Amino acid sequence: MKKRIQQILTDLECIQESFLGLSDDIWLNIEHNDSQAVQKGSEFKVAFNERLNEFNRISSEISDLIENYTNIHPESVDIVQKSSPEHERIIRELNSSEPHTIEETFTFKRPYGFIFEGQAYTGIKTWQSLYKLFCQQLVVKDLQTFEDFINSPNCMTTQKNLLFANNRNSFRKPLEINNNIYAEGNLSANDICKRIKILLHEFKVDSQQFSIYLREDRNAME
């Protein structure tokens, strides 16, 4: 039963991410020089976002209900000590797949793992999990810089949306990064990658130090 419940919890997250990806795709494919198409697309986006927010709220409540009752949580990500034989095995496993950069488009694709500054992480099933884990590694890397960033004017997207906050109510779907640090989880794969790119820049990390590996590539090899 444990595996089945973990799969259901993962599926709920994946459905949310797929809906967000669909919304992005539809919006990008609107002919923006056609006023009628833009108006129709805007009406769709407003209605879709309202329904999606309600769906996400109910999905989160269902997930919380299941986790609290069964004490079963989504599968954890594999993190092993750097330079250990197991870590070297994971590095070889990932490097046998095709690495992807943060500059790519990931609509309707699923992550499997990533390598950040030589440390490998596998067993990832959703972009939310990847984003949360990446942010947690930045906290471990330099908590003071992370806290300074939260309190700086740079802690927002070009649309003026907060990247992080100390109050979970600042976000529609808060991801707890640390005891008092939260991030938005209601994001498409491409929005998550845009935010990772901002963080790499803020922490002065070369983007080549971050590689993504996809579940599709892994499945194709098996």
Sequence-ordered SSE layout with sheet pairings:
Elements: H1 2-28, H2 35-70, E1 78-79, H3 85-95, E2 111-116, E3 119-122, H4 127-141, H5 143-150, E4 164-165, E5 174-178, E6 181-184, H6 189-202, E7 210-214, H7 215-221
Antiparallel strand pairs: 1-3, 2-3, 2-7, 4-6, 5-6
In short:
The chain is of the alpha+beta class. It is built from seven helices and seven strands; from the N terminus they run H-H-E-H-E-E-H-H-E-E-E-H-E-H.
Mean pLDDT: 87
- String of helices and strands: HHEHEEHHEEEHEH
- Number-wise, the strands total 7
Q: Which regions contain 5 or more consecutive residues with pLDDT less than 50? A: none
Global morphology = globular
H/I helix tally:
7
How much of the sequence lies in strands comes to: 5-15%
Sheet of most strands: 4 strands, antiparallel
- Kindly provide the radius of gyration, computed on alpha-carbon positions and rounded to a whole number of angstroms: 18 Å
Spatial strand order of the main sheet:
1-3-2-7
Q: What is the SS-derived class?
A: alpha+beta
Q: How widely separated are the two ends?
A: 26 Å
Helix content: 40-55%
Structural write-up:
This protein starts with a helix and ends with a helix. It is of the alpha+beta class and 222 residues long. It contains seven helices and seven strands. Helix 1 packs antiparallel against helix 2 and helix 4 packs parallel to helix 6 (189-202). The mean pLDDT is 87. A hairpin with a 2-residue loop joins strand 2 (111-116) and strand 3 (119-122). The strands form two sheets. The protein has a four-stranded antiparallel β-sheet with strand order 1-3-2-7, sandwiched between helices. A three-stranded antiparallel β-sheet has the order 4-6-5, covered by helices on one side. The longest helix is centred in the first third of the chain and has 36 residues, at 35-70. It is 53% helix and 13% strand. The protein has helices at residues 2-28, 35-70, 85-95, 127-141, 143-150, 189-202, 215-221, and strands at residues 78-79, 111-116, 119-122, 164-165, 174-178, 181-184, 210-214.
